[in-house]
Amino acid sequence: MDASAFAPWEDPQAQPLIRFKNVTKSFGTFTAIDDLSLDIFEKEFFALLGPSGCGKTTMMRMLAGFETPTSGVIELAGQDIAPVPPNQRAVNMMFQSYALFPHLSIWDNIAFGLKRDKMPKLDLQERVEAMLKLTRLEQFARRKPHQISGGQRQRVALARSLAKAPKLLLLDEPLGALDKKLRQDTQFELMDIQETTGTTFVIVTHDQEEAMTVASRVAVMDHGRIIQADTPDRIYESPNSVYVADFIGDVNIIQGQANPGEGDGYRLFWTEGQPPLIANSTKSFSAGQTCHLAIRPEKVTISAERPEDAANAVRGKVLDIAYLGNLSTYHVELPNGLVIKAQTANTRRISRRSFTWEDPVWLSWTATAGVLLAN
Amino acid sequence: MTRLSWFNVVSLTLGFAFLYLPMVILIIFSFNESKLVTVWAGFSTKWYGELLQNEAFLDAAWVTLRVAVFSSTIATVLGTMAAYVLVRGGRFFGRTLFSGMIYAPLVMPEVITGLSLLLLFIGIGLDRGIFTIVLAHTTFSMCYVSVVVSSRLVTFDRSLEEAALDLGCAPAEAFRLVTLPIIAPAVISGWLLAFTLSLDDLVIASFTSGPSSTTLPIKIFSSVRLGVSPEINALSTLMIAVVAVGVIIASLATKRAALQRRREEQLATQT
Ligand SMILES: Nc1ncnc2c1ncn2[C@@H]1O[C@H](COP(=O)(O)OP(=O)(O)OP(=O)(O)O)[C@@H](O)[C@H]1O
Ligand SMILES: [Mg+2]
After folding, report:
1. What ligand is nearest to the CA atom of residue A95?
2. What is the pLDDT of residues A288-302, one digit of tens each?
3. Cα B36 to ligand 2 centre (Å)
4. What is the pLDDT of residue B101?
5. Edge-to-edge strands of the sheet including A312-323?
6. Do A144 and B264 make contact, defined as CB atoms within 8 angstroms?
7. Can you list the domains of chain A with their CATH numbers?
8. For residue B24, with 0-12 CB atoms within 10 Å meaning exposed, 13-18 middle and 19 or more buried, which class applies?
9. What domains appear along chain B, each with residue ranges and CATH number?
10. Nearest atom in ligand 1 to A54's CA
11. How much is the ipTM here?
12. pLDDT tens per residue, range A346-355
C-alpha cells in the first residue's frame, strides 16, 4: 500500500467512520476520558498508545457498547451509537482479559459468533478452520481454554474476534503474550487481513515498535486525553510535546531559553559558559521563552575531534556504553552534568570500537536534527 | 500414613459416636422381631413388609416427593433470577431493601413463616393441599437457592457475558449460552438444597397441609405420638438409605469429574 496515497485524515471532505465528539467518561468522581475528540477513518489501522490507566480500554468499551459516555457523542458512520446495544453493533472486540468461554472448546469459542449469525454449517466449518490455521491453533481445536497456554489463549481470543469479519475491530493488546517471532508474524497477518478485508482496526498496544509497524496513525494518550494523533513518522520526527517525544522511542531533552535568530532558526541558551545551540523550528517562540530541544540519539554523532562544520558541537566524556548488537548507545556526560545519548551503528567488530569509558569525545548534530518544544 | 495419637483416636470416636450412634440403634431396631422397640427378640425383616402394605405411609411418601420436586424446581428458577438481579442489576431503586428482604426467611423462625402463610391462604380462600405446601416450600427454600447462586455469581467474570453480547447474543441468549452453563454447579446444588429442605420440613408443612395432603414427616411425627412402632424405624432406615445413596452418588460424580479434568490437563501438557 502506498502510504502517501491513503491519508483521509488530511482530507477535510472525508467522512470519518468513528467520530468522538467531546466525549467525557467519568466513574464517580474519577474522569477516565476527558473531553476527547477524535476521528478515525474507514480502513484505518489506528493504534492507541499510552501508559497504564490512561483510558485506552475505556475508549474501546465505549465503542463496543459496554460503557456509555457521561457526556459527548460517539458516531459510527455518521450515526450516534448510544442507543445501539452491543449485540447489534457491527463491532467486535478482543478483550484484554481474553474472556474465553471456559465451558466451550477452542473450536466452539471461535464458532460462537458465527453461530449467532446463523451461518450455514459448511461455511461455518470452513471459516473456523481458516481462523484456526491463521492463528496456528489447529491441533488445539478440541481443547478447553484452561488446557492451553497463555499465548495460545490470546490467539484464540484474536481468532474469535476476527471470525465475524466485522466492519470495525477493536483489539485490546492483542499480541502482548506472544514471543517476538510469532508477534511479528501475527502483525503482518493483521496488516494482511486489514488490506484484504478493508476492516478498520483500532488496536491498543504497549509496544511502540508494534504501533509504528502496523498503524496508519498512532494516538498517544495521557490521563484520558489524546496528546497527539498522527502518522507514525510524524509522531516520531515531529512530536508536539516533550511527553510524546519521551513516550515514543529514546530521546534527549535539553532545556533552555529560546532566542529567535534569522528565518526559522533559534538559538537555545542551555547552560553557562557554552555557546548556544542552533535549532530550526516551524513553531515560533518568543525571546527568552523556556523551551526544550528534543533530539533522538541516532541523530547525534559521536567523534574524537570537533567536527569542522557542525552546527552544534559539545564536549563530554563517555559514561556508559550499551551494546545492542546492531547498535551501540553511548551515554555521554556534558560538563554541566547533563547526560546525552548518542547512537551509532556497529558496522565494525566490537574489538575495534573507537571509544571506551572515560574517553573525552565530541557530540554534534545539525540544526534540523532536533525539534523545539514548548512543553 | 501417620499414626493417630490416642487423643485424636478418642476425639474421633466420640465425635462419630455422637453423630451416628442414634442412627445405628434405629437401624438395628428396625430389624427387630418384637413389637416392643426396646427389647431385642431376634432378626426379622417383617416390618419392612408391613410398611409396604401401609397405604397411608406410601401416600405420604408420594406427596412428599412431589412437593419436594415441584417446590425445589420453582425455587431454583425464582432464586436464580433473584440472585442474578441482585448481583447484576446494578443500582436500582430499593435494591438494598430487596436484597435484605430476600434473606429474611433464612433467619425467620419457621413457626412464624408457617403461621403467616396459613393466614394468607385462609385470607385469600385457598384450599389447603399439595399446592399450598408447594407454595410454602418454594417461599422459604428460594432464599437458600439465591444465597448459593449469588455467591457464585459475584465471582463470575462479567467480561464473559460482554463477550457473548459482543459476538451477537441478545442478553437472554447470553445468559442461556454462557452464564447458565458456567454457574450450573451452583444452581444444581441450590436445587439439591431446596429439595432436602422440602423433604425434611415438618413445621411449615403442618401449617399449610390439608387433610388430603399429609407429608411423610407429618405422618411420622403423628404416629410417633401414639408410640414408636418398629414400622417407623423401618421407614426411617429406608430414608437414611436413600439419603446415603444420594450422597455417595454425588461424591462419586464429583470425584469422577475431578479425575476427568486431571486427565484432560495431562493431555494438554503432553504436546
Ligand atoms: N468500571 C470502572 N469503575 C471505576 N474506574 C474505572 C472503571 N473502569 C476503568 N476505570 C478507571 O479508568 C481509568 C482508565 O482505565 P482503562 O481500563 O481504560 O485503562 P487502560 O488505558 O486500558 O490501562 P491498561 O494499559 O493498564 O490496560 C483507570 O484509572 C481505571 O482505574
Ligand atoms: Mg486496558
Report:
1. 2
2. 889 999 999 999 999
3. 76
4. 80
5. A301-303, A360-365, A312-323, A327-333, A339-345
6. yes
7. 8-245 (3.40.50.300), 250-373 (2.40.50.140)
8. exposed
9. 48-270 (1.10.3720.10)
10. 21
11. 0.81
12. 877 665 667 8
